[in-house]
Amino acid sequence: MNFQKIFIPVAGIAAVALAYRQYGWIGVAAVATGLVMWMLLHFTRMMTVLKRAANRPIGYVDSAVMLNAKLKPGMTLMHVIAMTRALGKLQSAKDVQPELFRWTDGTHSHVTCTFVGGKLAQHTLFRPGEAAPP
């Protein structure tokens, strides 16, 4: 189970409860305002990333080799989309785990990424002229 899915809401509730205990309703208003601001910042970042990705072809990246060098296990799909500035081309069935996305560059090199629960599990670089991986 994803630790953040439980910890973030529990920490928010605990912060509101602690603010109420220490400062009353003014504390609750201050903490609630901070939490809403935090959520709006994340929403704005997500919308900015998706707006940039909407202007590019699906599954295209400037350099698959450079993308491969920058990828690290545990990165979120949103982080990879922000790096490539393009949505990946879905290679697996829709809404089935693990999800496979592919980004291809102008030389027909491509990086295939496997995401499990929205986090990068593994990635593979293929360059034309190389033997296909088994």
If you had to describe this structure to a student in words, what would you say it looks like?
The protein is α+β, with helices and mostly antiparallel strands and 134 residues long. It has 2 domains: 3-53, no CATH class; 58-126, Beta-lactamase Inhibitory Protein, Chain:B, domain 1 (2-Layer Sandwich), CATH 3.30.1450. It is built from 4 helices and 4 strands; from the N terminus they run ααααββββ. It has helices at 3-23, 25-54, 64-70, 77-84; strands at 89-90, 99-104, 110-116, 119-126. Strands 1-2-3-4 form a 4-stranded antiparallel beta sheet. It is elongated, with a radius of gyration of 20 Å.
Order of helices and strands: HHHHEEEE
Q: Name the average pLDDT.
A: 91
Q: What is the CATH architecture descriptor of the largest domain? A: 2-Layer Sandwich
How is the quaternary structure best described?
Answer: single chain
Residues in helices, as a percent range: 40-55%
Find the structural class using helix and strand composition: alpha+beta
Looking at the structure, the CATH topology of the largest domain is: Beta-lactamase Inhibitory Protein, Chain:B, domain 1
Estimate the global geometry from the Cα principal axes: elongated
Beta strands, count:
4
Q: What is the count of distinct domains?
A: 2
How far from one another are the termini?
A: 32 Å
Number of helices: 4
Strand content: 15-25%
As a whole number of angstroms, the C-alpha radius of gyration is 20 Å
Side-by-side strand order of the widest sheet: 1-2-3-4
Major sheet characteristics: 4 strands, antiparallel
Contiguous uncertain segments of 5+ residues: none
**Under the CATH scheme, which class of the largest domain?**
Alpha Beta
